[in-house]
Amino acid sequence: MTSTEATYSAADITVLEGLEAVRKRPGMYIGSTGPTGLHHLVWEVVDNAVDEAMAGHCSRIVVTLLPDGGCQVADDGRGIPVDQHHQYPDLTAAEVVLTILHAGGKFGGDGYKVSGGLHGVGISVVNALSSRLEVDIDRDGRRHYMDFTDGGNLSTRLSDTGPSPEGHTGTTVRFWPDPTVFDDVNFRVQTLLERLQMMAFLNSGLEITLSDERSTQSDQVEPTTFCYEGGIRDFVEHLNASKESLFSLVGYLDQHEDGNEVELAFQWNTGFNTDGLHSFANGINTIEGGMHEEGFRSALTGVLNRYARNRGLLKDNDDNLKGEDIREGLTAIISVRLPDPQFEGQTKSKLGNVDIRSLVQKATNDKLSDWLEENPSEAKRIAQKAISAQRARIAAQEARQSARRKSALDGAGMPDKLKDCSSRDPRESELFIVEGDSAGGSAVQARDPRTMAILPIRGKILNVERARPDRMLKNTEIQTLIQAIGAGFGDDFDLEKIRYHKVILLCDADVDGSHIRTLLLTFFFRQMRPLVDAGHVFIAQPPLFSTVVGREKTYLKDDHAKTAFLADNPGHKREFQRLKGLGEMDFDELRETTMEISSRSLLQVSVEMGSIADEAFSVLMGEDVESRKKFIQTNARDVRFLDI
Ligand code: 0RA
Asked: Of 101, 217, 406, 560, which is the most exposed, with the fewest CB atoms less than 10 Å away?
């Protein structure tokens, strides 16, 4: 952070426009008059305070949502200048800053080396869009006050109201957004918290507090203070907190040159995501990326390839690591500060300054190489992870190609284990996926061979939630499933090509059976989602009990069904037979139970279930049997029984 001496005065403030235009076309200045625009007012004032912090003059910012709907932003910066303005001899500098558009001192003056570009429309915009605005300025040992009404009309001129607290300087702005301008003037705590936290991360050591004093609001919170001595290092740690990091160290480097600054923090986690790179320019999240990201990506790729070659981790014949291999599991923050940021792109959040690319590239080249030398065990783990990502990428590519070749051979590629049905009409064809070879054998005998196909699956299939595509495709059970269904997988899945309109999972009614069923559902949900969404996936469950009523055998699904049956039939004296797992059933039992049940009441994993939030699904998919059971119990009502 650069410190500028207090040579800045009213003379530096350049004046561009009046406030009328802002009220006529608010969208032009703050984006919209919806929630985004409303919160923009807060960012504008806070950005001014953060600028003071970046100039080295402010260490605390307190944002308070006032009981009557106003918002107060207090900082301990130098205070807005209170002297007479050179261009407007009748006005003080503070009055100019609050009433003349673009008079923040950021445009043209050299008072600030670096400032936010996106929100830097000037604090006068906040005034223009507020029904009331009040300012307290502590400066030169005196307290000053002024206020405005109805969109920036000076109501109480800047006046000295007495001494300021001993040694205190700073600015406090209170504003009440104009309800005739905004659709809704309620601030949202979560929106404010998220952004204030981000600002605290990007300005190490700066303390930012949010306090909500609105009594009638339901989302009232205790004051929250953000302050990060580690800055973007803490940001990376925060982003990786919910993940398993590859090593505990967070890497960091920075470089200053010609008034530009770049800061970089990074850590890898054990996951497979490649989208963990976040970039900022002058504190603004450049979600569309730009030159700083480009510079970093290309240098990162170069540095790691050189490292892996020099250490012999990559052999002469090995291909270079691709950027995506290296970025797998990377969480990184790039923060650059520059005097004249060019924001481009659809949402004006792409940094266009070409100089920044070479600056970031150079900084990363020099300093990341050093960091790798200084941290050999971390460096090795990063390289190893990238190499395994590379192998996975190549293997997945090959597997996809061979899967495509196989499906091109149409039918010829059907797995041996599949006992297909003779019908070629998918609408009447059913695929029974059966747990275990012996159950598969019985099912083959019990089936109607015209419309029912049987595919035995051995044991636990791979949890696709925890494997990259290449490993998934190496799994024979998964290959078999993909071939049998015949419509590809992942992004290439084509619902038009499915060979069966019913894919029915037959698993034992025990814990293992439910685990296997969950793994299969996970696979369908992740890799053949349209199949689930279109209602083609079913579960058949063999009953746990049977008993005889009169001359008829009755099947009872589970303990619950048995209890209910006894309540309905208090006089029932006959024994209950506990049925065995699918694999131990003989031909007759299987025909009498499973197939019977499967054609009468099937549990359809319907769109309702598919639309249960993804996170619920991940609980369902987890290894933890208890939480899965609990999930199934609590969501049972979302799962529809289908009678056919
Ligand atoms: C113009 C010039 C200077 C500071 C500010 C504006 C300023 C604005 C706001 C808005 C909220 N808090 C603020 N703090 C400062 C430079 C002052 C100097 O050179 O002493």
From this structure: 560
